[in-house]
Amino acid sequence: MQETTPLTAQQAQLLSQLVDGLSTEQLAWVRGFLAGINHSVRHAGAQAPAAGTGSAAAPQLTILYGSQTGHAQEVAEHAKARAVAAGFKVDLFAMGDYKASRLKNDKLLLVAVSTQGEGEPPDDARDFYEFLHGEKAPKLEGTRFAVLGLGDSSYEKFCQAGKDFDARLAALGAERLVARVDSDVDYDGPAERWIEETVEALKRVAAPAAAGKAGAADGFSLASLAGAVAPAAAASQYSRKHPFDATVLENLTLSGRGSSKEVHHIELSLEGSGLTYEPGDALGVVVKNDETLVDELIDTLALDPQATTTTQDSTLSLREAFLRAYDITTLSRAFLEKYAALAESTELKALLAAGNETALRDYLYGRDVLDVVRQFPVRKVKAAEFVGTLRTLQPRLYSIASSLAANPEAVHITVGAVRYDSHGRARRGVASTYLADVAREGETVPVYIEANRNFKLPSDSSAPVIMIGPGTGIAPFRAFVEERQALDAPGRNWLFFGDRNFRTDFLYQREWQRYVKDGALTKIDLAFSRDGEDKVYVQHRMREQGKELYAWLQEGAYLYVCGDADQMARDVNTALVDIVAEHGGLAQDAAAEYVKTLQREKRYQRDVY
Ligand SMILES: Cc1cc2nc3c(=O)[nH]c(=O)nc-3n(C[C@H](O)[C@H](O)[C@H](O)COP(=O)(O)OP(=O)(O)OC[C@H]3O[C@@H](n4cnc5c(N)ncnc54)[C@H](O)[C@@H]3O)c2cc1C
Ligand SMILES: Cc1cc2nc3c(=O)[nH]c(=O)nc-3n(C[C@H](O)[C@H](O)[C@H](O)COP(=O)(O)O)c2cc1C
Q: Domain named FAD-binding FR-type: which ranges (predicted)?
């Protein structure tokens, strides 16, 4: 990693001016950025032209990102800052904004892309993905590239989009600068190393004179530095790594008596945090594991709960580390591979062998780490060895259900408690049941804001809005309507909501009725799947209302979908294409293209999970 390099006096002064507005994380990043500049300057050597002389054109680098919730974007922005510091002229694009016709001329190309759905690229990256994989993609001999995949190893198609981009760029003749990196939920470290190695490789292949641009006086300013820092959290010192302890103001069960679901409405105070958000953003909740489960696991492993354990950030007892630092529930191939080696289990190794994918998928479903440890005991394991099989415990995201304009210094979320029985044990979702059961009024919950630039109300407040949010997918639309009412936005609002039963599962029923009465909600269509003989879902209501829905789209409406990614989002998309085909008199291909254009124009946005 970056060696420590002293700051110049000018940089130290700039840093001190910035300190007040930055979080600890951002400060660390700024230090790294400045160190990168100094490092480049020192390594540029005496033959490098003086900064700002303009004697050598900086080599052109293009960085593309495909990002749903902003992680890949954040990495791409850091990569840009590093490459600029190393003397490159950098163009940074969301894949959705990139003109594919540029591709054959972009000889140095970096790609940071996450994976969504079941191994698919993010919405915004789909067009470019399809172009690259299609017949019109150009030959790319002479192009140098590097790919960073972001993903989650508990998904079967881990970092699939990154793998696809990497393979396709190579197949088109481009040459790798460094090997692809597939980063898991703890992406910060791998991403930082990928950036470092990639920039070093870039410096080797591009003109060494590039480093001449790295002079701190050239292109380096307070404004450019501040602009390079991730913008979302800039106003607050609180972040994912440094969450704010928000006091629970209210924790209500929204589901009625007798419901087959358990949904909570939770209000938290942000007073004194400086945290702000916009409708469409999510609240990150830093969670802890269930104490009973932690004790059972330690007992089964015959470990000392007080054994000293060193995590990424601190030294804790094993019990504390299992409670707060490690994911002790999610089962994944990556965990099983490490555990099989530790337990020397031939049965587990056989399950992991090539060709056994279906059996592995069946085994992973509905089981957790404790099931595996009980079924395949490991003898005399050391705490550190077992900890080495685990990933860090990840915060969970919840779509924000409130508008700051209507609720100053507060944030609301809508949480579906995950509870189910499996393999003879009662299971509880880590975060949702912690929020449902433990986060009662007066308790504090560590939170941060995860901005989502891909799920935003139209900037034109008169544009009509269509919102499709069954189940807890309703949450951001409560924020949307609240915001539009608070700001007197003249645009029309149409909500499609669905759940199981009208009587028990009509989330925020009274609020919607009031909004309809006030005129804040122009239209509402409801689908309750278990009230009648036939199952009725939101996509059925959309089809019934197809003519009017198409008319709204023709009048410039923005369409939003939130909630279940597996079935609902797919069915809604199919319904949308069919509606456009039928009511727009278009062939199915042309209707699909119409919907893609909506997506490209950011008039069709999804926040699905
Ligand atoms: C951008 C975004 C916004 C979100 N917004 C919301 C929101 O507004 N409201 C909300 O409630 N959630 C929301 N979520 C989901 C939320 O982040 C959590 O994933 C969810 O609450 C479950 O987390 P958990 O820790 O309780 O469960 P975990 O401990 O993570 O357990 C969940 C896992 O349990 C397994 N599982 C669940 N049910 C079963 C079953 N019946 N049988 C077998 N296995 C099962 C699945 O593998 C599942 O992934 C959002 C997610 C994202 C990414
Ligand atoms: C609905 C959903 C589906 C996902 N599917 C996958 C997947 O198939 N494979 C994978 O490796 N990661 C998957 N992930 C994890 C994301 O890729 C990971 O959270 C990543 O850091 C997101 O980066 P972004 O914010 O740039 O989009 C999924 C995440 C969500 C919310």
A: 241-458
